[in-house]
Specification:
178 residues, alpha+beta, Hypothetical Protein Pfu-838710-001, eight-stranded antiparallel barrel, 30% helix
């Protein structure tokens, strides 16, 4: 699976939520996420637990650049009934690979066509916006970039607010600088 995404810092949380709600035509779905990232040789690997105890193992690979970029990813879903299996797998991955970091956030999800707009309140980091243009098989990365740029403009996100890495990397940088 693949998408095109951008991520940015935001300064006016309420304003961007209102714009995203207007663009999507409805209120956000609020999702609580608790991600543990593991040390891996390439890409990123994380176990994401949700507020209802379900989980998703996510492997993804993307360039660390601020502009819209392709992300290739794989998912393994764990239902609430399988939450113990997800916890067991998380423990095994922590023992074998080690935990790189943990990201806890409240995510507001808005859908605009094939694009997920995420407005995130990240514990110990602040507020961010992420666009994920889910590409159809026949779509090019450039088409996805055009969709992302259009929504970036509509949301009022400036290029200087774009970030080039994952939240776990920003948290790691924050810890090193303290």
């Amino acid at each position: 699976m693949r998408n095109v995404e951008i991520k940015a810092r935001i300064t006016d949380y309420d304003k961007i939520c209102n714009v995203a709600e207007d663009l999507s035509g409805g209120p956000a779905t609020v999702i609580i996420q608790d991600d543990t990232f593991y040390h891996v040789n390439s890409g990123r690997l994380k176990m994401r637990f949700y507020g209802d105890s379900s989980a998703t193992l996510v492997r993804y690979d993307r360039e660390d650049t601020p502009e819209a970029k392709q992300s290739d990813y794989d998912l393994v879903q764990f239902s609430v009934r399988d939450s113990e299996k997800a916890r067991d797998l998380d423990n095994i991955l922590r023992k074998c690979l080690g935990a790189k970091g943990r990201v806890v956030k409240e995510r507001k999800l808005y859908m605009v066509g094939q694009t997920r707009i995420h407005i995130d309140a990240v514990q110990d980091l602040g507020h961010f916006m992420e666009l994920e243009v889910v590409l159809r098989p026949e779509q090019t990365v450039e088409e996805g970039r055009a969709i992302a740029r259009d929504l970036q403009i509509k949301l009022g996100i400036k290029n200087e607010d774009l970030i080039d890495c994952a939240y776990v990397d920003l948290l790691g940088q924050k810890i090193k600088s303290n």
